[in-house]
Backbone:
């Protein structure tokens, strides 16, 4: 889990807008295994270890359904500590009959599905970094079939929810302009391009991880921002290793003309496609 701690920059928390908070809480508790840390009539904070908030949900007033072909969330990705944890949750999904997609990316093994509002979710386990293949500054990733038979030989115990070592592994975003988004995340926020999928997607990371952020134009070149009260991504956090590193990012954001607002706990900015980011330490 060293890729999600100092000295790297990584995603800490994702905040989503949902249409029915109680329904979403049941889903995230019973299907995925999150624990409720704090709850009000319109908001909830969710955790794997009962302390660290990884996901928060809000039910806006006059919420409208998720809008298609807009920028925003493609999926958020929950990283489990071990392959056996992934096997355990596969068995759980089989028992409850949850339809899932899957893939072997060589660097990781992943499951894909959506919450009741259509927000995309990935749950995955990393292979050992010693098994990753780097070609210069880029890591080799594929979209191969997942070998469930082999994976399930790793099942260790009956599923009991998310293990305490679970983190927010990465976030994957729909953007309107791949080149502008890449420049924003690399030149301003400090990420490196570590993988490319033609002219459609980029994968960005620090510390030679396979990716902390994914960006794609699969919603269409020039895709508009969603409505403010639409289901989907509200914001996500990036955790910087020090105040100095965050201040450098803020200065770089201002140098490229990006809006930055200081808040009590950090700084807020928006990528060129309108995805809102909180810069924290």
Residues:
């Amino acid at each position: 889990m060293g890729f999600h701690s100092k000295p790297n920059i990584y995603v800490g928390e994702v905040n989503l807008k949902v249409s029915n908070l109680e329904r979403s809480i049941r889903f995230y508790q019973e299907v995925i295994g999150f624990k409720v840390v704090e709850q009000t009539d319109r908001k909830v904070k969710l955790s794997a270890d009962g302390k660290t908030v990884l996901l928060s949900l809000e039910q806006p007033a006059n919420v409208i359904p998720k809008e298609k072909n807009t920028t925003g969330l493609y999926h958020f990705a929950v990283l489990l500590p071990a392959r056996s944890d992934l096997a355990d949750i596969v068995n759980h999904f089989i028992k409850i009959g949850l339809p899932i997609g899957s893939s072997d990316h060589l660097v990781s093994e992943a499951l894909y599905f959506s919450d009741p509002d259509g927000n995309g979710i990935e749950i995955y386990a990393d292979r050992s970094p010693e098994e990753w293949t780097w070609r210069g500054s880029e890591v080799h990733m594929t979209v191969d079939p997942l070998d469930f038979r082999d994976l399930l030989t790793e099942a260790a115990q009956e599923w009991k929810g998310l293990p305490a070592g679970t983190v927010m592994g990465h976030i994957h975003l729909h953007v309107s302009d791949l080149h502008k988004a890449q420049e924003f995340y690399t030149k301003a926020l400090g990420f490196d391009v570590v993988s490319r999928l033609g002219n459609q997607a980029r994968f960005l990371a620090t510390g030679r991880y396979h990716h902390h952020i994914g960006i794609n134009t699969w919603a269409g070149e020039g895709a508009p921002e969603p409505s403010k009260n639409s289901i989907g991504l509200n914001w996500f956090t990036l955790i910087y290793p020090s105040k100095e590193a965050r201040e450098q990012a803020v200065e770089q954001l201002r140098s490229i003309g990006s809006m930055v607002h200081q808040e009590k706990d950090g700084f807020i900015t928006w990528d060129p496609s309108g995805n809102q980011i909180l810069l924290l330490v």
